[in-house]
TrEMBL record:
<keyword id="KW-0472">Membrane</keyword>
<feature type="transmembrane region" description="Helical">
    <location>
        <begin position="16"/>
        <end position="36"/>
    </location>
</feature>
<keyword id="KW-1133">Transmembrane helix</keyword>
<protein>
    <submittedName>
        <fullName>DUF5711 family protein</fullName>
    </submittedName>
</protein>
<dbReference type="InterPro" id="IPR043765">
    <property type="entry name" value="DUF5711"/>
</dbReference>
<keyword id="KW-0812">Transmembrane</keyword>
<dbReference type="Pfam" id="PF18975">
    <property type="entry name" value="DUF5711"/>
</dbReference>
């Protein structure tokens, strides 16, 4: 009987120790999860000889830097893998999976790159307003010719695949365009001057066989009265998004897109930002203790994050579901669940920040320097 009691005691004691260690482990995990990173280590630094137009794009597992003087591709350690020099007045760029296009806005130069380097280059006959690229390097360009606007499709060497002629009188003013990842569909947001005010028309143009039988290849048209749609984009071949001045719409359809989700706001949108799966909006706060309110939605129209903050941001980005807020003094990062993960006060005035492949890595552009840092 005595031995039996001892065994029970030993068993209870072992179970207590196991429970204790599990509790300690859980507490440690919670501390790591809830910790806000404020310190950082500079991994590499170099003087920024770039012009003020230098910008960064996430390019697969690499970073793509472009400016008026040229472009370069860097790995996760900030090392330059390749570069290409040119001279542009006002470079604009777009990225789709493994392809990047850089063009001279109001100029005629177009360069296409993949992860290995330059893939193509050509000149347009008319000044460029906007460019978009598909995964295989097909380029859509908005070109201006006095009262006529052309929306043309090109291959990587400048061969004309298709062209669309538009005028303000017939279609409206093109606010934005999007090109599907497969390069077969174009989405255009037109601002139409209506007698009672304004109207936005979003046209879908299909250059596959289904669009060949339609006038001007247009397979679908959405109209929005009294609002502006300054931004449109494709998520994939089947889904696309219209960002409106009063909300957003999600369209679906591989061949003939139709509106499936519509979310409207009564509040004024201060800033909108997105990645492929989430759409974020910043409003003035409806709480006295905070300056701003952030709402993030998925493509089904469900709000996944509601967050209040006081940070005076200059720029807002979304990268892989995380929210990146930037101002002159530093930056903050919120997780896909709205939890603050990073709050860095930088030692120099911050111009831009980009998330770099690698745990806790960021490229910080400041006055005179570009630094690769790791938060800790």
């Amino acid at each position: 009987m005595k031995n039996k009691g001892k065994k029970l005691f030993d068993y209870s004691w072992k179970r207590y120790l196991v429970s204790f260690f599990i509790l300690v482990l859980l507490i440690g995990v919670l501390v790591v999860i809830l910790r806000v990173e404020e310190d950082y280590t500079v991994l590499s630094s170099y003087e920024k000889s770039d012009t003020s137009s230098t910008q960064y794009l996430a390019f697969g597992k690499r970073m793509f830097k472009y400016s008026a003087d040229g472009v370069s591709c860097m790995d996760g350690n900030g090392q330059t893998l390749w570069n290409c020099t040119f001279s542009m007045q006002s470079p604009i760029a777009d990225v789709c999976e493994g392809s990047v296009v850089v063009a001279d806005q109001q100029g005629t130069d177009v360069y296409i790159f993949d992860e290995k380097g330059q893939k193509g280059q050509f000149e347009t006959l008319l000044p460029i307003e906007k460019v978009k690229v598909a995964r295989q390097g097909v380029v859509a360009a908005v070109l201006t010719d006095e009262d006529v606007t052309w929306i043309n499709l090109y291959d990587t060497q400048g061969g004309e695949i298709a062209k669309m002629r538009t005028t303000v009188k017939e279609s409206g003013y093109p606010m934005d365009i999007a090109l599907s990842p497969d390069g077969m569909k174009i989405m255009v947001s037109f601002l139409w001057p209506d007698q009672s005010g304004i109207q936005t028309r979003v046209g879908f143009y299909n250059f596959d066989s289904i669009g060949q039988t339609e006038e001007n290849n247009q397979v679908s048209l959405l109209t929005y009265d009294g609002v502006v749609a300054p931004s449109v984009y494709f998520v994939d071949e089947r889904r696309s998004v219209v960002l409106r001045s009063n909300g957003f719409s999600v369209c679906q359809g591989a061949e003939i897109p139709t509106e499936k989700v519509s979310v409207d706001f009564d509040e004024e949108i201060l800033t909108a930002f997105h990645d492929d799966g989430k759409i974020g909006f910043i409003f003035k706060s409806d709480k006295a203790d905070y300056k701003y309110k952030i709402l993030v939605y998925n493509l089904n129209g469900r709000c996944t994050i509601k967050k209040y903050l006081n940070m005076d941001y200059r720029q807002a980005k979304m990268m892989e579901g995380n929210i990146l807020l930037i101002n002159d003094k530093g930056f903050q990062v919120y997780s896909s669940r709205g939890r603050k993960r990073v709050d860095v006060t930088y030692k120099k005035a911050v111009e831009d920040v980009a998330s770099v492949p690698g745990l806790g890595k960021y490229m910080v552009v400041s006055n005179g320097h570009t630094e690769l840092i790791r938060v800790k």
